[in-house]
Amino acid sequence: MGRAEERRARQRGGHRAAPRRRRSAPETGNRSAGPAAGGAPRKSLLRRIFSWKKILGTFFGLCLLGIAGFAVLYMVVDVPEGNALATQESNVYKYSDGSLLARVGETNRESVDLDKVPKDVQHTFVAAENKTFYTDSGIDLRGLARGLYNTAMGRGTQGGSTITQQYVKNYYLSQDQTVTRKLKEMVISLKVDQKKSKDDILAGYINTSYYGRGAYGIQAAAQAYYRTDAQNLTVEQGAYLAALLQAPSQYDWAVATPTGKKLVQERWNYVLDNMVKQHWLDPAKRQAMKFPVPKEPKGTPGEEGEKGYLVELANQQLEDQLMSEEGISHQDAVQQVVNRGWTITLNVDKKKQAALEQAVKEQLTSKLDPKQRKVDGDVQAGAVSVDPKTGKIVAMYGGTDHFKHWTNNATRKDYQPASTFKPVILAAALQQGSVTQDGKPINADTVYDGTSGRQVVDHGVRVGFGPPNEDDVNYGPVTVQKAMNDSVNSVFAQMGVDVGMSKVMSTAKQLGMDTEGMQAVPAQTLGSMGASPLEMAGIYATLDNHGNKVTPTIVKDAEQKDRKVTMPNPVGGPVISRTAADSVTSVLTGVVDDGTASRSVANNPLRAGQQVAGKTGTSDCDLSAWFTGYTPDLVTSVGLFGEAGKAGGTGCNGATVKKQDHVPLTGALGGGRVNGGGPPAEIWATYTFGVTHAAKFDLDTSQGAAVETPTPSMSSQSPSQSPSQSPSGTPTSSGSPSQSPSQSPSQSPSQSPSQSPSQSPSQSPTTDPTDENPLGQLGDQRQQLHHQQRQQQQP
User: Fold this and answer.
1) Could you tell me the maximum CA-CA distance found in the chain, to the nearest angstrom?
2) Beta pairing class for 447-449 and 393-397
């Protein structure tokens, strides 16, 4: 080919023609080192090993191997005998010394034929769990593959199962989460789907599922929740029972948290909406349906008195542990625990439990007279006692009787902890090394402006929050120690902003508070979130244990026929430094000895040398009252809650409320306002001083009421005082961001000498807070009267 022809060839082919090879002498050397004789390069080693033909062949080979393996598995695995009845056995609960606490588990189960269950009610379960139930083969291949993968990888189970699979798991297999059990579930589900009708499978499913309240099967559930038979259930009621199966204990209306009630109503709506989509329910009827609130539960034999509350918490903690260990769902964990033949040993000390119950009776319930005072019928009490060194829950009070009041007052989270949250703010400040707005370190001797209603400022900008103090008392310049003693709201509101509310809430979480969904806003400094005595006991136990995390645990161990579950160590590593924790403890001894708890605790005749730290709390509108306190070897949180009785009541601002809504405690026990320094502290002292001995805190700190330290000059510590302040302690306004904008610059020069720089941080309980009024209103008789009343009531 000539050059012209080559050029034309390139034009036709769109590329340069390959040059002609010139003849040369015979090639020498390794022929594989260059192009092949035809000009094409030889294949690389990787391409020769992983050719598309080999990959495709391997894939089909694995598929054939999988099919063959499944075929063998299908032939080998038979449908076993049902085990649902055999595994329903009584659980035995024991005190820490091995003595019997309760035996629970008289099986509440009754099977009914499917024709006794209304068709619409049957559809609620299909709509909730498996919309393709009537047309599928009994298994969800994608869900099963996902479950097998997650189980093999140790990630637990994710993804839903069909009704057939759940029935097989409930009736034929265990709740174990293993690959073998999953494979068996798949094979048996396919065989059951072939051998049984869909109606038989659905009947088996609704008759073997656990609905909470000790009820197995739809007939027992209908009676437990609506006092009716399954054949009389409405569509609305059926939708609630179907919704329950996802989380029986969390969705039980009688004990559900506000979040739980919201979730179960969403689930209920989901079920009914699915029924409309499946053309099983008329849209117009659906729109007219209202949520059917279940009736109050009846007690299960063996759970009377305090036993039911102890059993309930033990079950919950065991379920949580199984979920963590085995990666199973909450529904599966409940199925494994309730009435499954467990022997569960609790950490509860029999003597301390009896002492706590007696203290509540002596200081509270024996004094209540609902016939004379209607508000006395609205008083609920809860308490949790924890050994801070081991994390064991040694005693708990959940209410007067589990049969009469189903909600466990020791674990409920729907009431505000109020000022018992203030130590968390101080802990955050000490842990973070926080400073005031003008750069002064925050510690027990730092001076803040305690003017009632003082607007909180953030670097000169008001944040729109200025809480009043109790009885609207103005404290003026006041140390953090004194502010904690007398629970001065204005001080801790400003301190929270100085520290940063996100840091405060982070510290609360580290100490043991469930902060999910809580906003980091200044109002939280007053303890406006919800918390339980169990949570507060854990937070204070962590402080008592020098900052090492304490997670209060009621279960010591649990044994079944072929396995034993040991709970994780309740005491973990440090979440705040020992110095920070011990400094808070030191400050809290001042609350007991010189502050709001002095009458009930410090001066209690039962006290025999025990050193005590603690904090009172009274929520807005007198809805709750608290005392959480501790000795070196015992932490106990006591809460009183205003809960409307059967007839409802009057809430805040005179609003009419229904049963179980929050109502004020004002007037209970024949007195005025019920506050933390009253009945809660009295219960605490009667119990604690009856079961503890003289002991002193081992504190690594140089500040607070528990140690003697010289008080630094107010000019060097106060975040709000001018550097030119008089050495006599006479305050002058400086316009500092943390000082009240309304403070008079002409403050009285004759201020009480009790404000001298040499004064101890733990001021005498007889010191009148009006002496610290920055306005010098020593002659204000109304303010003095307010303080006298406050000293008498001891909030």
Assistant:
1) 124
2) unpaired
CB neighbours (10 Å) of residue 606? 12
pLDDT, averaged in runs of 10, over the chain (795 residues): 59 51 46 48 60 65 60 55 62 95 78 93 95 85 58 49 86 63 76 88 92 89 94 97 92 88 96 96 96 88 90 96 88 86 96 98 96 95 98 98 93 96 98 95 97 95 94 96 97 97 97 94 95 98 98 96 91 98 98 94 92 96 97 98 90 87 94 94 97 95 82 37 34 36 34 34 34 32 39 42
Residues contacting residue 63 through CB under 8 Å, at least 6 positions apart: none
Helices then strands, each counted (H, E), the chain: 25, 20
Distance CA 753, CA 771 (A): 9
Helix (H) or strand (E) holding 287: helix 283-288
Q: Could you write out the three-class secondary structure of 569-602?
A: CCEEEECCCHHHHHHHHHHHHHHHHHCCCHHHHH
Strands 571-574 and 613-618: unpaired
Classify residue 61 by burial, with Cβ atoms within 10 Å: 0-12, 13-18, 19+: exposed
**Residue 53 corresponds to which tokens in the numbers above?**
């033909």
Closest C-alpha to 615, from 772, 754, 436, 492? 492
Amino acid at 649: G
Count CA atoms closer than 13 A to 89's CA, side-chain side. 11
Provide the 10 A C-beta neighbour count for residue 26.
4
Whole-angstrom distance, CA of residue 107 vs CA of residue 220: 10
> In 435-570, where do the E strands start and end?
447-449, 457-458, 461-462, 477-479, 548-550, 555-559, 564-566
Q: How many CB atoms are closer than 10 A to CB 60? A: 10
For residue 638, the cross-strand partners are 383, 627
For residue 496, how many other CB atoms are within 10 A of its CB? 28
Residue type, 535: E
Give the closest residue to 196 by CA, choosing from 87, 85, 114. 114
508, β-bridge pairs: none
User: Contact at 8 Å (CB) between 448 and 478?
Assistant: yes
Distance between CA atoms of residues 114 and 109, nearest Å: 15
Strand partners of residue 383: 397, 638
The first and second tokens of residue 16, run together, are 């340069």
3-class secondary-structure state, position 197: coil
Work out the number of other CB atoms within 10 angstroms of the CB of residue 576.
22
**Do residues 219 and 111 make contact, with C-beta atoms less than 8 angstroms apart?**
yes
From the list 791, 614, 772, 636, the residue with the least C-alpha distance to 706 is 614
